[in-house]
Amino acid sequence: MNNMGGARPIIKTTLFCGNIEEHTYGLYTDGGGNEFNETCCQSDIDGNSYVGVNDILNLVSFWDTDNVNVDINNDGIVGTDDLLQLIADWETCT
């Protein structure tokens, strides 16, 4: 995150993947519930640190939508490629 302006955004309940807190630049207000992880598993949709049945059920429930929380490969649509990535990460992604 890079805040070069005069505003001071409030950031809360956000998971920063592939980042550490030192990657934030500029002023911001910590609203609490933020988590900085050097590595994250995009396929862990429900956030329980395990890729399993609940993740596949979540993915299917948002099929053919643009839900960014479920779009594992970040192509703008929840679909087959996301399902294939989730299967590839099955029980191995922590």
3D architecture notes:
The chain is an alpha/beta fold and 94 residues long. The protein has two domains: 1-40, no CATH class; 53-88, no CATH class. The chain is built from two helices and four strands, in the order ββββαα. The chain has helices at 53-61, 80-88, and strands at 10-12, 15-17, 29-32, 35-37. Strands 1-3 form a two-stranded parallel sheet. A two-stranded parallel sheet has the order 2-4. Helix 1 runs antiparallel to helix 2 (80-88). The radius of gyration is 15 Å and the shape is elongated.
Describe the protein's topology.
Elements: E1 10-12, E2 15-17, E3 29-32, E4 35-37, H1 53-61, H2 80-88
Parallel strand pairs: 1-3, 2-4
Structural descriptors:
94 residues; alpha/beta; two-stranded parallel ribbon
Summarize it.
With 94 residues, the protein is an alpha/beta fold. It has 2 helices and 4 strands, in the order E-E-E-E-H-H.
The share of residues in helices is 10-25%
Model regions low in confidence, pLDDT < 50 over at least 5 residues: none
Count the domains: 2
Total DSSP helices: 2
